Amino acid sequence: MTELCSSETVDYICPKIGKDGSIYYIKRPYKSDNDGNFWLDFLLFPVRIIKAIGGFLNAFSIMFGGESLSSDGKSFHNPLKAKQKDDKELFIAGNIINAEKSEKENRRHGDKNPGIIPHSWQLVRRDHLGEEEIVRSGVMDYTFTADGSLIVSDGKHLLKLSEGKEEILCKCRLAQNIVAIE
What sign results for the dihedral spanned by CA atoms 49, 53, 54, 58? Predict the structure, then answer.
């Protein structure tokens, strides 16, 4: 087994081998779960314990009594679930992404077809000498066509990249696991 890429600050995901033998992958900044504030977590510990006990009692009451402990039936709601309903913030591949902010940033970087995936998510081509080339920024997923062209998703469109040109194939929101059948 040979390690091709490794970094403490970057994730290398979706590796695939292209028609020319180069390795393609998506390179994105790594965000650790340990980025929290110790003192804030320490101060909020008692509050979180009380919420956990309340949530347990509420679940117990619903399971065995059929009723929630609150009169509105919405006690101990999960704020993350409320965020999921908001179209401005999306949970993609383990990351919360602000779609509007990412699209504005991509437009500012001069992307011809700005998508909602952050500009820092880059599709990279690595040749047999180890030289890296950024093929496109703001990529969520990609695949190859039979002729070696790339089809990429920017979270908003499916794009075909061929001979330095970028063509919109269709509008396709949050396309993942792309497969090209010809």
Answer: positive
Domain that holds residue 17: 10-31+90-171
Mind spelling out the 3-state secondary structure of 130-176?
CCEEEEEECCCEEEECCCCCEEEECCCEEEEEECCEEEEEEECCCCC
Q: Residue 48: inside a domain, yes or no?
A: yes
> How far, in whole angstroms, is CA 100 from its chain's centroid?
14
Q: Which of 145, 147, 153, 157 is CA-nearest to residue 181?
A: 145
pLDDT digits (tens, 9 = 90+) for 111-161: 777 778 888 889 999 988 888 898 888 888 898 888 888 888 888 888 888
Report pTM.
0.61
Q: Are residues 27 and 47 both part of a single domain?
A: no
Residue 136 near residue 123, CB atoms below 8 Å: yes
Answer whether residue 108 is part of any domain. yes
